[in-house]
Amino acid sequence: MAIHPFDFKLQADVFSTPEGRDIFAETSRIQNWLDFEAALALSQAELGIIPAAAAGIIQDNARLSRLDEAAIAEEYTRNRNSLMPVIKALRQACGSAGEFVHYGATTQDVIDSGQIIALKQVLKIIKNNLLQIEDLLINMARRYRNQAMIGRTHSQQAVPITFGLKTAVWLSELGRHCQRLEELKPRLLKGQLSGAVGTMAALGNQGREVARLTMGRLGLGISTVSWHTSRDNIAEAGCFFAMLSATAAKIANEIFQLGKTEIMELRESPPSGKSAGSSTMPHKRNPVICERIAAINSHIRSLSGVIMEAMIHEDERDPRALWSEWLAVPQIAVYTLTSLQYLQEVLSNLEVNPDAMRQNLLSHKEMILSEWLLFRLSAVMGKKRAHEALSPLIKRAQAEKQSLKDLLSAAPEIKAVLSPADLSNLDHPENYTGLAARIVDDAIMEAAARRRGNRAGGNHESR
Q1: What are the Cα distances from residue 73, in Å, to 101, 121, 240?
Q2: CA torsion, points 88, 92, 97, 101, in degrees to nearest 10?
Q3: What's the DSSP call for residue 401?
Q4: How many angstroms separate the CA atoms of 298 and 287, rounded?
Q5: CA 96, CA 267: separation in Å to the nearest integer?
Q6: Neighbours of 77 (CB within 10 A)
Q7: Bridge partners for 160 per DSSP
Q8: Do 37 and 95 belong to one domain?
Q9: Residue burial 364-374, b: 16+ Cβ < 10 Å; e: rest
């Protein structure tokens, strides 16, 4: 019976992705452990620690399909160790070679390394997601480079910006996550093979070489010192997932807010063939995916706290912290993949309404150019005097619903400074966007340069 939304069949993948579920499925989890055992045996055979024939048998049988799954399930009802029922089944499948299974390793070596194998797959998907989202944002920023809209601070109308600039802000933040991803990999993608308390005593004098060969076969790096109780690497991954999700939630929230009926500058649009309507109000089209991103983010933030707290270990092994982390990692990873997939869907189908942006830009008329007026007058009157002269006129215009332009024209001190061209400029707030267009261009160039650098680095690594 399915309890968690990850496992739902009729409501499949509302809060998960097929790839995420596959990575952390029970069968995948156990297969990662078996891959570790096969790699360990082959590495020990290469060094003459165990017979090569035994290693071959272990490799052949280190597949869940070759093991007695019913016996494993039955053994878990009796054995409270996280791994040993699987090891017992593998030993039985290997016959006399079974005595060389799990030779010198400890349970945590296997489970930690299996978790890193899974996280490596997650990071690969995340990188692909980020690049696709980045493509969408680059195209959006370029397309709406000069599309004026009202900027808002403290939820109030402020001064004009462009939608291209808003998109460039999203793009820049996403670009930093792309950098964090590459910086995280060498710290995170290291397996574990150091024995019961991190001394490698059971692995013998060749322990370091066994670990190097084993991790090489698994496609992982190796840490000089055991990280059995040093979980900063996993905590960093949890924080990274939380930051990624927060960015997705921030963008989704902006789209949610700007899609309100009274604003309607942006609108979440469901893909063709999908519906997001109300059950009782046919005129509505709800921003369901943006809302899901927000809900998922709240769980990711909580889970990142759980993982952070799991850094606090006692002595050389502390399952209280480990189990807490092992429970949280699959959830936070799957939720993060879901959040990014949803963000990509929203941006791919986003409705942008330039007419509404123009209408909202003009709704407060000359008021939104108060900053321009202040600094135009300051050049002649000084900023303090300009502020004192301008503020009462703005308040009067707001209170009496009068034209600020008319009040400015009737104020002798201000009229002496402002030319007819200056007054005419108050009718064109779209011209007061500062360096927004250049900032957009620079943001796009930065993204392109970083991607070229990443490709060059990848080519260098491949050589």
Answers
A1: 20, 27, 35
A2: -20
A3: T
A4: 17
A5: 65
A6: 8
A7: 150
A8: yes
A9: bebbbbbebbb
> Which tokens in the block code for residue 55?
């290693």
CATH code of 149's domain: 1.20.200.10
Could you give the 3-state DSSP secondary structure of residue 428?
coil
Q: Is 462 a residue whose pLDDT tops 50?
A: no
Residues contacting residue 61 through CB under 8 Å, at least 6 positions apart: 67, 90, 93, 94
Pairing mode of beta strands 351-352, 221-222: unpaired
Three-class SS state of 230:
coil
Domain housing 50: 15-100
pLDDT per residue over 85-129, tens digit each? 999 999 999 999 999 999 999 999 999 999 999 999 999 999 999
Within 8 A by CB and 6+ apart from 303, the residues are: 238, 242, 328, 331, 332, 335
Q: What are the φ/ψ torsions at residue 150 (nearest 5 degrees)?
A: -85, 135
Catalytic positions: 154, 278
Residues 171 and 289 in one domain: yes
CATH number at residue 74: 1.10.275.10
What is the rounded CA–CA span in Å between residue 142 and residue 163?
10
The residues pairing with 16 across neighbouring beta strands, listed in sequence order, are none
Strands 221-222 and 190-191: parallel
HSE of 135, CA atoms in CB hemisphere, 13 A? 8
Using one digit for the tens of pLDDT, what is the confidence trace for 407-457?
988 888 888 898 889 888 899 999 999 999 999 999 999 999 998 887 766
pLDDT tens-digit profile of 35-92? Answer: 999 999 999 999 999 999 999 999 999 999 999 999 999 999 999 999 999 999 999 9
Cα separation of 270 and 259, whole Å?
A: 13
